[in-house]
Give the backbone structure.
Amino acid sequence: AQTVTQSQPEMSVQEAETVTLSCTYDTSESDYYLFWYKQPPSRQMILVIRQEAYKQQNATENRFSVNFQKAAKSFSLKISDSQLGDAAMYFCAYRGSNTGNQFYFGTGTSLTVIP
Amino acid sequence: DAGVTQSPTHLIKTRGQQVTLRCSPKSGHDTVSWYQQALGQGPQFIFQYYEEEERQRGNFPDRFSGHQFPNYSSELNVNALLLGDSALYLCASSLRDHLRKNIQYFGAGTRLSVL
């Protein structure tokens, strides 16, 4: 079964600084998709960024970018110019191309932004 | 355009009871997935409904069942509640044709407490 591991239960960053959240995953599939979701106290999961495994170029969405290392099965999220509104739980998720539509989530990283 | 809506927001039940949670997908979406998120954990896939049928199921017992109506809304039913069923239950909707693009929207969830 696919597993997603987030080894950092909690992280903190100074406002305007950069922080990197780590994620590793285990799979035997060659084609899959990776995601970072944000879950603020309102509980609604919000998609931050996604990456197709067949694309070598790292995805970028404004202040959010990923470092996708397929061979190492690593998928980290970098948040630049951190803002107070970035404070939330961040979940890494995996979806395989051969495992239907099931998403596998990590246990999350709680990000605190210090003013 | 309303997003994914779930009801109720909070629910308290006792062991052995039965519960029904409801989800209305985002306008135009035809596929609904349900997730269980225990405290301090990432969401776990329960099942997915499309065309009023369960299409895929995660590792959950038969006590968890669901239904999808012709208007695409969905219900999650849990029978013989256990203390361990206490969790946030998330609904996610998508358009079947867009699943390949992994476009999935989440609701704010129903917080179920089993006493």
The radius of gyration of chain B is 13 Å. Chain B touches chain A through 25 residues (CB under 8 Å). The mean pLDDT of chain B is 92.
